[in-house]
Amino acid sequence: MSWFTHRHAVVDRIEGGSVAAGSIEGARIVMQQPGWRNNLIGYDTIARPVSAEVARLFLVNALAFLREPGQWYVDPKAGLLYYKPLPGEDMRRAKVVMPILERLVSIGGSYDRPVRDLQFRHLAFRHTSWLQPSGPQGYASQQSGAYLAGELTGYPADPIRDCSWGCPAFEAMRNRWNQQPAAVQVAAATRIVFDDDQFSQLGQVALGIGNNADANDGGVGLGAAAIEVTRNSFSDLAGGAIMVGGIRPDAHHPSRPEMGLRDILIRDNRIAGVSRDYKEQSAILVTYASGTVIANNDVSDAPYDGIDIGWGWGTNDPGGSAEYWRQQRGYYDQPGNLVYDTPTTLRDTVVVGNRVTKVKQWFPDGGAIYHLSADPGALIADNYIADVAGAGGIAVYLDEGSRYVTVRNNVIDRVGGVWLNLNSQDFIAPKRTALDNLAIGNWYNSGRLQGSWTDYLNNRSVDNIKVEGDAWPAAARSVIDHSGVRPQDKQP
Predict the structure, then answer these.
(1) 3-state secondary structure of 408
(2) Which residues, at least 6 apart from 399, have a Cβ–Cβ distance to it below 8 Å?
(3) Beta bridge partners of 264
(4) 184, 251, 301, 473: which has the highest count of C-beta atoms within 10 A?
(5) SS3 of residue 415 by DSSP
(6) How many other C-beta atoms lie within 10 A of the C-beta of residue 96?
(7) pLDDT tens-place string over residues 237-253
C-alpha cells in the first residue's frame, strides 16, 4: 500500500528454511501467478512506490496472525473457521454469516432492449464476498477499483528494473484494465431507482452503474441512463460505495450511442466506513458520464477520496495528452491507444451541496473532491469539506488534464496541506494540459493554493477568501448549514 494503490498478491508456498522453528532464513517465498507479476509493473509499485516514506507492506490471512479480538481466519482445505471473540462475546449466541455470493443483483438488458423502470425501495443489501483476490490473479490495483489481470504480451524479462515505473507493456494494457464487480450491478438499463436502501457488509464495491462488461454478470456493460440513487445508507463495505462508468474505450468514445451513460442522480445518501479492504477506492467514483449530479450527500470516514470525477488522465481528450506522448510513457505507441479529435462522454458533471469530512485517512494522493480530464460544464460548488488531516491533505484536486471546471462557493475547514490543488504539470511547460479552470468565491481557513493559475493556461483563481478560525461570513455559514443530507421535509 502506497501513494494511490492497494495491491494484493497471494503466497503459493514457502520452500526451504526453518519455518517450523520460527525462522525463514534461507527460505524462498513462491507467489501465485499472474497476480504477482502484474503487481510488479506500472506505477506506485512495491519496488518503486511514489514515496518510500508512506509505503507499507502487510502480511495477512494466516492462523499465526490471529491475535486480536474480532479477527478471524478461514482454512478452506480443513473446512475450519477460527475466530477470536470480542470481550464479553458469547459464541453460543453469536450469529455468524460466511458469505459466498459474489453478487446479489445483476441488472443487464441489451443496448437494443434495455431493462426499464425498476424500483428498489426500503431494502437491505448485505453479505457478499469477492473471491478473486484470494486466487492466482490477486488484485493488481491501479486505482479506484481498476485492476490489471491476465497474461501481458511483451512482459519484461526484468520487471523491477524495466517496468516498475511504467513501460510499453504496461501502457499497452491501460485501456484494458478490469473493474471490480459490484454487489449490485446495473448496465443496459433505463429509469432504475434505488431509494432508502441499506448497503452494508459487502465484500466489494456496493453499487456499480454502467461499469465495464467484465464487471457485470450479464456480460453487458455501460448503457445506463436516468438512474437515481437517493436517500440510501452505505456502511461497513470492503470497497467503495458507488462506482459509475467504465474505463475502456467504449466508455469514453462509445461505438454506438446507446453505450453512453446519461442522467445519473446521486443525492441525499449517507456514506461512512467504506473501502475497508480495498483502501484505494473512493467512496463515489464517476469515470465517463454526461450530466451526472452528485448532491447533498454526507461522505465521511474513508481511507481515500470522498468524491472522484473523471478518468483517463487527459489521454482520451481531443489531441491527447502531452505527458503521454513522451518516450518515457510511450502510451500512443501502443496498438489500440488512439489519439481522439472528439471529446469524451464526460461533461456537465455537478458536485453540489455535499458534506465531505474525515476522508483521505490512508493516502496522500487524491483529494476530498477530485477531478480528472476534460469535463465541459463541470461545477463543484457549495460543498463543505472538513478534517482532511496531514501535510498531504488536499480538499479539492484538479488533476491531470482537468479542463472547463468551475470551483465555486465551497467551504474548506481544517485541511492539513492544500485547499485547492491544480496539477498543471509544469515540468513539461510550455506544453499545456490542465487549463480553462475557474476557482471563485471559495472560503478556506487552512491549506494553500497550489498549481499554475496563470493567463497562459487560462486558469483563474479570483475572490477566494482566507478566514481565521471559525469566523465564517454568513454566506459561508449558510453553505455549511445546508451541506449534506437534507431534512426529510426538503426531500421529494
Answers:
(1) strand
(2) 310, 313, 370, 371, 372, 423, 434
(3) 227
(4) 251
(5) strand
(6) 8
(7) 999 999 999 999 999 99
